[in-house]
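S2.1 Query sequence (GTPase Der)
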Amino acid sequence: MPLPTVAIIGRPNVGKSTLFNRLVGKRLALVDDQPGVTRDRREGEANLLGLEFRIFDTAGYEDEDAATLPGRMRQQTEAAVQDADVALFLVDARAGVTPLDEEIARWLRSTDRPIILVANKAEGRAGETGVIEAMALGFGEPVQLSAEHGEGMADLFEALLPHVEREGEEEVEEEDPDNPNAPLKLAIVGRPNAGKSTLVNRLLGEDRMITGPEAGITRDSISVDWEWEDFEGNMRRVRLIDTAGMRKKAKVEEKLEKLSVMDTLRAIDFAEVVVLLLDATRGLEVQDLKIADRVLQEGRALIIVLNKWDVAEDASSLFNGVKKALDEGLAQVKGVPLLTVSAVTGKGLDTMIDVAFKTRESWSRRVSTGQLNRWFERAIEANPPPAPGGKRIKPRYVTQNKTRPPTFVLFGTRVDLLPMSYQRYLINGLRKEFDFGAVPVRLNLRAPKNPFDRDKG
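Output structure tokens follow.
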């Protein structure tokens, strides 16, 4: 049984994202003094004094034409209310009730959703007048709280309880990361306007993310749970993460955009597989290689996808050029999957998700010590390690100490002196022998530290 859902709504800058962060117990939503920071619906699992529910943070409700960016943001907010079991209507007690608050109240009264009026920033005497004004909105006495300071949470609990309490106890299924049936955590990253939100919307079959010609619409990393039907008809769970576009550092000047880039980097850390989306009409740029390198440094599995393939010119030449540039620019990992899709038409998207699941399998693969050392003996025999300064390096055995990404430890005498070229020889051998594909593979070296070790070889 899914968790009950709660939507937070209100005009810009009344503290919706601050309350969202308070309820989920993490700083998931970007918060800043300027209005309009949140644009897409963000969701998370909330726990309020033991009461569990899914919470939706929404964009500030603005009275703008539907074709404009604020208008498209409003449509997302309206959709969130329709999907929710109950909505929290936030007003700013210090600012008092505004004409936009009154307009939102009129719209909410026309819906069939239960509404809980919340007067935020109600701490101290400064909010008393605003609380009294809020009572005229027609939703009864408001719950008074301070999302920033955590005051009034018990009152909010009592107001929410009749709407989200579930009968009986329900066991929550814990996600085992080693379980192949666990949701695939898939992040979509790339430069602004590469089509990330359009791609997510196409996969979901709904306008879940705000899109448009303006670059940089997405600011938060938005996580959405979804099910994909694979080529054999099985339903596979996916946690899609849409992220803000990552521009060159020199162009990241605005404080809010810096927060967005940091949020994207956290999304990469959270993901298992990262899709780096390129705009086929613009080709591969240096910034793309920097993003790809960051993903691999973090040990995440990487897939590179050329979007807008339906309008690409000289497609064959473009594909071969990008592939060659990737091989040269990502020397540490050869053969990263390069796919072509159209987020607008949907062509190639099923293949992309299929490759993502297979890539996660490689990223999570564990090899037994016996298999490893049989390969290791052959590799050492075929290409013995060098003897720098006349001192023999004696590798003894190798073992895998972790997965995700596959990480191996090589033990032996003076193995810490192995040159990088020989380490790459071993890593490439591991990758080929055990079919790790292009996922990051790490090799750590362990030489004895005993100062009385007299093994001169």
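Residues 255-270 form the longest helix (16 residues). The mean pLDDT is 81.
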